[in-house]
Amino acid sequence: MGQLNDKVIVVVGGSAGMGLAVAKRCVEEGATVVMLARGKERLAEAASSLGRTAVPIVCDIASADSVRAAFLEIDQQFGKIDALLNVAGVGRIAKIADATDDDIDFVLDINLRGPILTTRSAVPLLRKAGGGDIVNVSSEITGDYMPFMVLYGTSKGGLDTFSRMLNHELRADRIRVSNYVAGSIGGTDFGVNFTPDGVEAALPEWMESGYMTRVAGPGMDPEWMADAMVFVLTRPKGQMIDVVNVRSFAPGSALDAGVL
User: May I ask the CATH architecture of the domain 8-257?
Assistant: First the structure.
């Protein structure tokens, strides 16, 4: 028997990296997993690799209309959900005075506004299940300073506050809200939105600040992150984990593992 048998779990950002690893692990534990992502072809391929209980739905979480449409489809197919996992995250390299309008919109829309939109649509379906879990994936950058990454840090700091507030708002609905603070992870597309010029400008300050070894460390295996996620989801109903911090323990730099 899997630990998540008969559960319907929505994984936002489920087509790659940590999201795909989480989706895979939830399927292995017996859940039906709805995978949300923007890229239709990659999403379809990822879901196909996990089998018939992985359901791909194309969704741009930066669009309120797209989110509403995706959760309407989920409601029509399943009538409820047991967990919402907001895993998707993006970053761009920019000091605030140099950040473009698109930089600001892109990072805040995916990392903060997106989880707000998905949560708004998920709550009625969690209520239909009699309660459940929302897990928001934040970053340990919020406890430190990484040069050139103020937009990313600010968006994740907002997500931390959102999670904390929701814990109070949704408790009467028996909906647990966990803030999953993640360290650096290998094998993801996190750096795909970094330009070569941006990396060249930022790298000296990243190294001088010590962030790459002091905080980031070598990238962790996405499967480790999935293990921790399942642990959060399978706590007894009378228990919750409001914050879990999963970080690299091995010595070395994030650059050693090709995180960027």
Answer: 3-Layer(aba) Sandwich (3.40)
